[in-house]
Structures are given as structure tokens and as C-alpha cells.
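Workshop exercise sheet. Pairs work together: one partner reads the sequence aloud, the other fills in the structure field after running the prediction. Swap roles for the next sheet.
Pair: D.N. / O.F.
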Amino acid sequence: MQLSRRTMLRGLGTVIALPALEAMMPRLAFTATTATAAAAGPKRLAWIYVPNGVDMTSWKPTTFGANYQLSPTLQGLAAFKNKMLVASGLTCNKANANGDGPGDHARANASYLTGVQATKSQGAGIHLGISVDQAAATKVGLLTRFPSLEIGMEQGGSGSCDNGYSCAYQHNLAWRSSTTPVAKECNPQAVFDRLFGSNSPSETAQARALANQKQKSILDFVLTDARSMQTKVGSADQQKLDEYFTSIREIETRLAKTSVEAPVKIPADAVRPPALPAKGGTNTYDTRLPLMLDMMVLAFQADLTRIITFPFADEGSNQTYGFADAPVPHHSTSHHMNDPVKIALLDKINAYHIKNFADLLTKLDKIKEGPNSILDNSLIAYGCGISDGNKHNHNNLPLILLGKGGGGVATGQHIQYNNVPINNMWLGMLDHIGAHWDSVGDSTGRISLA
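Structure field:
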């Protein structure tokens, strides 16, 4: 059975896109190059952001090149060393004050993907620039159901958040234009509904209510089509579909155990986001983060989008990490003043984030697309717009790239750059997936990833 890559299963309030199947591969004779490209799978980009800087002593490897030794913090990614590029010496100059006074957290978040100095304003005067993820979406976004996907863990508010800067700067990584941030979705249920719901929100809500009432899965609404399809594809595709449907059902089960209430909203007058509870209740950080990461996997697996941004928390976040043996506010702990106790706690927070990142990579690497995995076909940047949270500096930023981008990326090494704008790296990532832009923000060129 020959299937279109855009094949979807439809039912009441439900639209289920399918993963890459052998039945979707071209059957006609193409050139070798065309056939290889078709089987390899789409190329994808993602940016995962961690706030408040890191403990650079534990983060940065002390050796360079292909034989570098992993640092203590990056040991959690040892399984992916050959698919990882550690980039040191990149800078985000527009996060510096440059005459605008305090507000490093707002500027770090705002300029990370834009390379633009945020106009210091609390209201209608906000002005920044297009972010690199949205630049990529203008080139490849029409190929998928969602041009880009913005998810997060802390729901931003309005008003002033950091020394006279609008909360819009501190709580939005993605910017469609100089005056239009792209809000992230922080409610796992809402993300799930967006990925698998129909174009009718009311019908999607009706389907979910019915599924909850009768303890059904949304897959039950497309069961007839799903069974029919599984009888018409080969055994390898049947196994892929079974694994994919199982993942969807498993996420639904976890969502049912998680409070559907939205995460805490930031008061308009808050200088720093309040901490979410470390334990207690069902809507806690340590239950929502894995859910969000797993839905990121599904979004890539079903080719619903090829561009994702995901801050693990917003800049200045005082999220506590009791579940990681660090029951302390993140932001205030990052100002450790060289206190070894606080540094040790910060290292635990950094390690917790890396562990969850490694879990994401493991799942992406297990899902095959022809000869590659989804991770092989992706470039995932993990980093921050602040280097040392104690110093609030924006040079020598912590940055790692994971994945092969479909091939040709020179991973498995640690490279030291010399105060090169981080947007040069972003342009190199765009080039690699065929989403070229001449420049973004303060870029001065492009870093070749080959």
C-alpha cells in the first residue's frame, strides 16, 4: 500500500498524523541521490534553553578537539559524545547592558535567538527582532502542519519583570517580528490537544471529555482507520505504528494523572517568577517536564513540525529542585558568591536538566527513519544566554549541539571560538537544513558545521 507522507487518521475532534513508514517511501525509480534523500527523513531544528547560567567550572571541558574529555556536568551525555559538538567562546553581546543599566535576565532571554538589543520598555514600546527559529519557519514551516512549536514550563505574565524591561522579553524566546512575540504553551494537556486535535477547539474538547468519561483514548475515535491501515502495510510498518500508538496512549495515561490546571501565572509586578512547588500535588515541574519532552518527540516523529523552542524555565526563575536533591530557588542559588555549598546545589540543578535532555535524546535516537534516527536528522541546541550566573556575563556561553542534522555535521569535538556572535552558529544551523538567511540580528557571518 502506497501512502502519502501527509496521511492522517481523522475522527471526532481528533487528527492523528503518522510517523515515517516504509509505505511512504517512493516506489518509482529515482536517481540514487533522490532516493537516498527521500528515505533519510526530514531535517529538524530545536533550541532548548536553560536559565540563570551554569557552573562553568563543571560545565566546560578543559581539552579540545576530537579527543576532548567530557566535563563533570556533560558526563550525563556520554552516550552521545560522538553526536555532540561542544562550542565554547560564543557571545551574546546584545544581552549586555550597552548603556541600558541592569536587566541581564530579560536581555539574555530576548537576545539569545534574535541577536537584537531589547528596547527598555514595560508596555507598548517593546521592540526586538525576528528570532532565528521563526526565520527558519518562514523557509520550511509550510512543509508541516505547524510551522513551529513553542512550549515551555513557566507561563509568563505582563508588565515589568526585570528592572524596567517588559515581561515579554523575559518569557518569550520566539519572536515573529520586532514587536510580536510568539507565546509558548506550558500546559501539557493543551500541547497534546494542539498536536492531535482537530481544527475545531470545541469538537476537540468534546472528544476529550467523552474519552475521559468513558476512559477511552483519542485513538478510539480513529480506531477503524487505524486497524484498516495496519492490515495494509508491511510488518515493519505495523510495528512502527504499534510503537507510535502506544506512545500516544502512554502520554494520555500520564496526562490523566496530572492536573489539567495551567501552571502558575506570573503576577504583573513580579520582579522574578515565583517558584513552582518541588513536590506535592500533580502539576509539578518534575511531572510536567518529561511530558513536554515526550510530546516534543511525538511532534518530530509525526512530522507535525520541524522547528521547536523549549525553555526548561524562564530567565530569573526561582523554581526549586527538591526532586533533584536541590530544594533551593534556582536563581538565587546561581548567585553563589563562590560558596561551595551553593555551587554543589547548582551543579545538581544543571545535572538534572542534562539528565532530562539525555532522556529526550535517547528516545529520538531509537526512532528510525530509513538508515537514520530522528536524532541523526536533527540539530538540537542546548544552552543559555548567560554564562556564569554569579557574574551575569554573556560571553563564553554554554552551548552544545546534538544530532547530525541529516549528515555532514562535524560532531564529536569541542571547539573554542573567539568571541564569535552566537547568531553565527544559528545561521550555520539554518544553512544545514536548507533555510538560509543572509543575517539575523548581530550576526557577522556564519559558522560552518561541516
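Discussion prompt: Residues 28-32, 260-281 have pLDDT under 50 and may be disordered. What would you look at next?
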